Amino acid sequence: MVCQEELLIERVCELYEKISSLETLKPSKDVDMLFTQLVRTCMPPTHIDVTKLCKRVQEIRCKLIRLCGEAEGLLESHFSAILASHQNPLRHLNIFPYYSNYLKLSHLEFTILKEHYTHTPTNIAFVGSGPLPLTSIVLASNHLTTTSFHNFDVDPSANSKALALVSSHSDLSKRFVFHTTDIMNVTSALKDFEVVFLAALVGMNKEEKVRVIDHLAKYMAPGSLLMLRSAHGARAFLYPVVDPCHLRGFEVLSVFHPTDEVINSVVIARKYPILPTHDSSIVDHHNKGFGPIILPNKWSDIETFNPVNIIHGKNIIEELAFEDQLGS
């Protein structure tokens, strides 16, 4: 008898073959249908460990994540252009098919952030903001209404489209800054931010992701927070996984794995403060840009913050329920 895990992997591989054979990943009926099927296949909670899959499936997963990233970028660019055609773009954000997911995810991230940072941050950096910076927009509009957001993206056309969305808004136009640069070229400026958000698709594989995280660990201010998006179970076919052992130089504070249509897991970590210099072994290790404290190497070793019973005794996901379903 074939187990559920084998059936899931077989289905994912079938969808990969269909998606990879498409002439273009620009939004269309066929593209939308295949990616909706892929997301729905990977959405149900499972205990699958993608690191233990055979080499062939591992290679398919890596290629699939890149295809998902390309399709997501094209989808956001498409809707950013549509929104910019309106006189007041931010009043029409709900036309984006996954807007309700961003509302939920942003509220979840804000709730987790409040647990570990009691003050309202003055400056936040979002790395990999893209042409439709919905996280920054939702956080700035609904939760952090006095905070300045510095949005970093390597693509000048993405920043141009994003700027067009907020330039006519009397408030956000003053609090949003767009930087067209590779985050690997940003050094001392990173110390200006109390919180840094790292988009899920900045670093498409483990090596790329670790390189970015190590750079942030070297230049972020001591004690500042890093918010990352990861994936868990079968959802790791859609997005890269951030393991605690990747977060050298950071103390992992909390990990949360949603079980609804919010696909991304949320990880929050704190940059280690500068340590006393009386222990030469600690100093030598810290000077290499890595934290001197041994980190846990499994999710189960971390005491996970679960945002349940925060809002009037209700589960936050229930409190934030929306009528729009994924793919609608």
Overview of this protein structure:
With 328 residues, this protein is an alpha/beta fold. It has one domain: 3-Layer(aba) Sandwich (Rossmann fold), CATH 3.40.50. The protein contains ten helices and seven strands. It has helices spanning 4-20, 29-42, 55-84, 99-116, 134-143, 156-166, 172-175, 206-219, 280-287, 316-319; strands at residues 123-127, 148-153, 176-180, 195-198, 225-230, 250-256, 265-271. It has a seven-stranded mixed β-sheet. β6 (250-256) and β7 form a beta hairpin. It is globular and about 50 Å long. The protein starts with a helix and ends in a 9-residue tail after the last helix. Mean pLDDT is 85; it is low at 275-328. Its EC number is 2.5.1.43. It comes from Rhamnella rubrinervis.
Total DSSP helices: 10
How would a crystallographer describe the biggest sheet?
Answer: 7 strands, mixed
Globular, elongated, flat, extended or rod-shaped: what is the shape?
globular
Which CATH class?
Alpha Beta
Which blocks of ≥5 consecutive residues have pLDDT under 50? 275-328
Q: Return the CATH architecture.
A: 3-Layer(aba) Sandwich
Strand order of the largest sheet: 3-2-1-4-5-7-6
> N-to-C terminal Cα separation, in Å?
34 Å
Category from helices, strands and their pairing: alpha/beta
